[in-house]
Amino acid sequence: MKSDFKYRTICEVGCGDYISCFLNKYELNCSTKFIGFEPNPLLYNDLVKNIKSVKNVIIYNCAIYNKNEPVKLILAGKSSFLYGIYSPLQAQLRNQAEKIYNKITIYAKTIDQFDDGTIDLLLLDAEGCDYFVLEYIKSRPKCIQISTIDESGYINPFHKEIDFWMSMNGYELTYNNTRLRKCRFSL
């Protein structure tokens, strides 16, 4: 994906592995900073291994949440999610995912600890925790891509709060594809 607009900072919450990470699909210019968050330690290790030579990239191995505290992460590969949060995988498995997959304890933090006010593009695939990013973000990105509702019947548990936040902050829906679970809001 190439763009004439020069992003100062791109932030991706829920990077996944290197193959699915936005960083793998976007050619950073030398002045663009990339901040990524991946709570699953296996996926985080894959990211770090594959980005060693890329400048201006920081990947954190933590979840973004509404509190700074230890939390339980359900290990389900790219669909890993926080215990107690209704995620797309929970919808697909009829709330049985927490019983099927292993759990580990990780540390969660609020996004404001990492946001210096320069995020221009925010990519959210936080498996139900997307609103917690918006709740604490300092920046007002030009574009926010988020998953809220999909054709399988999943509805983000905070979709009303997300829509309200977008409206109150001047964002408009500019793209919606439920099959791909992506909506894009722009200022």
Describe the structure.
The chain is of the alpha/beta class and 187 residues long. The protein has one domain: 3-Layer(aba) Sandwich (Rossmann fold). It has five helices and eleven strands, in the order ββαββββααββαβαββ. The protein has helices spanning 41-50, 88-92, 97-100, 130-136, 159-168; strands at residues 9-13, 33-37, 57-60, 63-64, 69-74, 81-82, 103-109, 119-124, 143-146, 172-177, 182-186. A seven-stranded mixed sheet has the order 3-2-1-8-9-11-10, covered by helices on one side. Strands 4-7-5-6 form a four-stranded mixed sheet. The mean pLDDT is 86.
Q: Can you give the mean pLDDT?
A: 86
* Poorly predicted sequence stretches spanning 5 or more consecutive residues: none
Task: State the helical fraction.
Answer: 10-25%
Q: Kindly name the structural category.
A: alpha/beta
Descriptive labels:
alpha/beta, Rossmann fold, 7-stranded mixed β-sheet, 4-stranded mixed β-sheet, 5 helices, globular
Summarize the structure.
This protein is α/β, with parallel strands linked by helices. The protein has helices at 41-50, 88-92, 97-100, 130-136, 159-168, and strands spanning 9-13, 33-37, 57-60, 63-64, 69-74, 81-82, 103-109, 119-124, 143-146, 172-177, 182-186. α4 packs parallel to α5 (159-168).
